[in-house]
Amino acid sequence: MFNKIFKRSTPDYWKAYVQHFNKKHSQQPNAVRFVVFDTETTGLDVRKDRILSIGALSIFDLKIDVGDSLELYLKQEVFNAETVGIHGLLKTGNVLKVSEEEAIITFLGYIENSILVAHHAAFDMAMLNAGLARMGLPKLKNKVLDTGVLFKKTKYYEPRDHPYSLDRLCAQFNIKKHDRHTASGDAFLTGLIFLKIVASLSRNGKLKVSDLFFNSERRGLL
To answer: What is the dihedral of CA 55, 43, 105, 182, to 10 degrees?
Structure first.
């Protein structure tokens, strides 16, 4: 039985996704494609809840590429009326919605081997990986950066008892909040925060991509 599982062929879209990782990233941040993303979900339980929408945009040459973005809305297999007031996504509506499988396949094709960036990234990654598991596929292979963790590297960080929220970081960097609590809107805000953090860390012009991942308290961010 186990031989059949290990020998099971993977879909072509997964093979295409994996092939992108044969190429190594540059150590120069301006030569790397980062994909900033966010998800809106029915709740915070990775086992029971589902993704409602995915918003993503790319950063290359340390600039947001507004022409290279992704916005997906998923059919709601699980509906939680209590969270509608936060994200505003109804079970029905005029917006085009795709299945979870279609959304994840599209997301894989969009991100390729880019370095992913998100705020509180562990949750978003867990939700995507749960979707992949339901499709019988492994977890995402991309490296991941969390803006909440990166912020601790800056001179602005002051130890507090509570974590730094997206709203708190927007206030810190004087970023106006537009489309808050939409996946695309939060991805855009996270992208602006990420660029502000990178600029703060690279004032000497010697910042390397590996420096973004180095953490004296942990070996990695995720």
So the answer is: -10
Residue 80 included in any domain: yes
Nearest to 48 by CA among 122, 138, 127: 127
Domain coverage including residue 82: 23-211
**142/213 Cα distance (integer angstroms):** 13
For residue 72, tell me if it sits in a domain.
yes
Structural domain contains residue 5: no
pTM, entire model: 0.86
Sign of CA dihedral 128, 131, 137, 138: positive
Structural domains of the chain, count: 1
pLDDT in tens, the chain (222 residues): 444 444 468 999 999 999 999 999 999 999 999 999 999 999 999 999 999 999 999 999 999 998 999 999 999 875 555 544 444 444 555 678 999 999 999 999 999 999 999 999 999 999 999 999 999 999 999 999 999 999 999 999 988 756 789 999 999 999 998 767 699 999 999 999 999 999 999 876 789 999 999 764 443 334
In a domain, 183, yes or no: yes
